[in-house]
Design goal:
Helix content is about 35%, strand content about 15%. By secondary structure, it is of the alpha/beta class. Strands 1-10-9-6-2-3-5 form a seven-stranded parallel β-sheet. Helix 1 (about 10-25) packs across helix 2 (about 40-50). Bound molecules: 2-amino-2-deoxy-6-O-phosphono-alpha-D-glucopyranose. 2-amino-2-deoxy-6-O-phosphono-alpha-D-glucopyranose binds near residues 67 and 140.
């Protein structure tokens, strides 16, 4: 794990975007795993700017998203498909047919998730998976208690996640109680992982993920077992890390080496 701690979320987002852009330059047919939530938005904006400036092109890129609310149509303004279109896909030169989000209206969810996993496999697997983190340490919708070997499946959200996400809906009762989500085991198969965490309300989750024991009670902690995982945090999200000075000292060199600087 490399922990990159920046003063602001903008700086962290720019650095994370550089890592994504470097992959796309090196591999124009890259397969990306993408995340929703407010956290990756600034990084998506930087990638859109890079694309508009002709620095990168998504023309041959394929993407698969982590999760989708179960019961929401792709046209619903709180669906993750809608979110991805508005916050990224409509601003880059990606072919919409190459972007994949689980279908929240799938009648047979088992068929839907099996086809989703099979399609990722057929594309050669995910080169780089973008992640946010829930305030309870979840990744995608792998809530505390999810098996660390879980696959894409239907999940029930926790009251905490429903509360956290209620800000996007008219009222808490409108937040779906279930979602289709890639599993921890599925996520761990990505060749590289880039997790973003910003703000003081993520400090406990980051502490648990980086310095806690590997446990299904903080599913992000499974990332400690990943060979190529990068955390990009702002100062507030990193504030509770015991070894934060050491990470900062080490990460600067790692990032330079990675970007060929
Ligand atoms: C939801 C999503 C996660 C996301 C989390 C945090 O639970 N399924 O993928 O990481 O929200 O969202 P935010 O970035 O808005 O804090």
């Amino acid at each position: 794990m490399e922990i990159i701690i920046c003063k602001t979320k903008e700086e962290a987002s720019r650095k994370a975007a550089d890592l994504v852009a470097a992959l796309i330059k090196a591999k124009p047919k890259a397969v990306l795993g993408l995340a929703t939530g407010s956290t990756p938005v600034p990084m998506y904006q930087y990638l859109a700017k890079d694309c508009a400036a002709g620095k990168i092109s998504f023309k041959q890129v394929k993407s698969w998203n982590l999760d989708e609310y179960y019961g929401l149509a792709p046209t619903h303004d709180q669906s993750y498909r809608y979110f991805m279109d508005k916050n990224l896909f409509d601003h880059i030169d990606i072919a919409k047919k190459n972007t994949h989000v689980l279908n929240g209206l799938a009648k047979d969810w088992k068929k839907e998730v099996a086809a989703y996993e099979a399609a990722i496999k057929k594309a050669g697997g995910i080169d780089l998976q973008v992640l946010g983190i829930g305030s309870d340490g979840h990744i995608a919708f792998n809530e505390p208690g999810s098996s660390l070997t879980s696959r894409t499946r239907i999940v029930s959200l926790t009251p905490q996640t429903i509360k956290d996400n209620a800000r996007f809906f008219k009222k808490a009762a409108d937040v779906p109680k279930q979602a289709l989500s890639m599993g921890v085991g599925s996520i761990m198969e990505a060749r590289r992982i880039v997790l973003l965490a910003f703000g003081a309300n993520k400090a406990d989750a980051v502490k648990g993920a980086v310095e806690g024991g590997v446990s299904q009670f903080c599913t992000a902690s499974a990332l400690q077992m990943h060979q190529d995982c990068w955390f990009f945090c702002d100062a507030a999200a990193a504030a509770k890390l015991k070894l934060r000075k050491y990470y900062a000292w080490r990460a600067e060199e790692a990032l330079k080496a990675e970007m060929g600087a």
